[in-house]
Amino acid sequence: xxxxxxxxxxxxxxxxxxxxxxxxxxxxxxxxxxxxxxxxxxxxxxxxxxxxxxxxxxxxxxxxxxxxxxxxxxxxxxxxxxxxxxxxxxxxxxxxxxxxxxxxxxxxxxxxxxxxxxxxxxxxxxxxxxxxxxxxxxxxxxxxxxxxxxxxxxxxxxxxxxxxxxxxxxxxxxxxxxxxxxxxxxxxxxxxxxxxxxxxxxxxxxxxxxxxxxxxxxxxxxxxxxxxxxxxxxxxxxxxxxxxxxxxxxxxxxxxxxxxxxxxxxxxxxxxxxxxxxxxxxxxxxxxxxxxxxxxxxxxxxxxxxxxxxxxxxxxxxxxxxxxxxxxxxxxxxxxxxxxx
Length: 341
Ligand SMILES: [Zn+2]
Known about the structure:
alpha+beta; 16583_t:CDS:1
């Protein structure tokens, strides 16, 4: 498959590291620390927590954190695990400069650019990356029968987009071969077609941030993405296995009013425990998301025939199996003692 076919920004999870370097000190224990609540770098407007740290410490921390933007350096003392996300790491930055640095530092699916500000919304942690790998491989496996046909589904990785005065990437996205669209309706504000399926996995990222991004951006209007799958994994401490996992499925066909957010079509919890820590026992076939072939092949080239003989309609993603694959990979990482984060 030609990468140029999918634009210049193809970056598959499997062949391109999503970050240049990850500090082994970065811990998974994301807390509700208000350390940065009064820092000029934090976008929170909550000023009531100003007594927590002296301003001088905040300034030092802010400089250490800014090294990620300036040098691609996730400094071990930057205490990213305590940062309140989303976190504004740089201001007065052009979109071109932002994109240049994300390329240079190979950062994908962690930063976004909004109105000249660079915002960190997710940390480069193995649990985040591993889940993206698990769900991506499940989707690609389901689409495998169409491989090397005209109807092959491409995995675009964290493709770059720029509309609504912002620059955003998904964690993974998929589409068949699609013709260019009328500028400026493309995902690059020009003619680049949008992906049909977008996957967003939130680990450090807040549930509200990820859901807003999906509803307002990916599914902001009828000309963009068709379906979005959102997964929120509640963060746990270093060496622990995540317990609470939630999933949402959105389809743009469910958007009933232009100015109202699209409601979710499917929602379930598929972790081993609920939010109160009570065990939940899901079975195979219980927590599923169905993607219809009409959604998957939305706006394909007219001469491509939807391969109904090759693929089931709908494609069924069983989150029991995706969870099993994810947990197995994590357990292997822990056994290898490489799960520093
Ligand atoms: Zn759909």
